[in-house]
Amino acid sequence: xxxxxxxxxxxxxxxxxxxxxxxLPPVIDTVDDYVAYCARxxxxxxxxxxxxxxxxxxxxxxxxxxxxxxxxxxxxGLVDPIAFDDLVDLDEAIGDAEWILHAATxxxxxxxxxxxxxxxxxxxxxxxxxxxLPRVGLASLSWSTTSG
Length: 148
Hints:
Distance between the termini: 34 Å
Number of strands: 6
Order of helices and strands: HEHEEEHEHEHH
Strand content: 15-25%
Mean pLDDT: 85
Low-confidence stretches: 144-148
Radius of gyration: 18 Å
């Protein structure tokens, strides 16, 4: 009988790619688009999913170069924080809604730098660790919650 090599993760077939629910929206980098998205966000309901993209691998700062936001009833917003003095209006539109982040300790400093401060927070990575899941990356957690 041939001997198997590699870990179970290396032997497992790759997970299928996650599919976007909606088309990718344009980046919000004008005041008019920003004001319109903030108004839609304020009318949404439930928690708000946020993610910040940084260029720390290419630059020396942890500054946010893109803030991704999603809320039921509001859709997805891709906000260019460099185009604005701050994102305080976005913070006000979120209000006291719970934030959902993955690996929050990585994003909270750069989000605070642009004026975004949560009043309630759920960290999916921390939840995975508390549940003692073997993989706590966002893709693994997303797959496990959508696959049944």
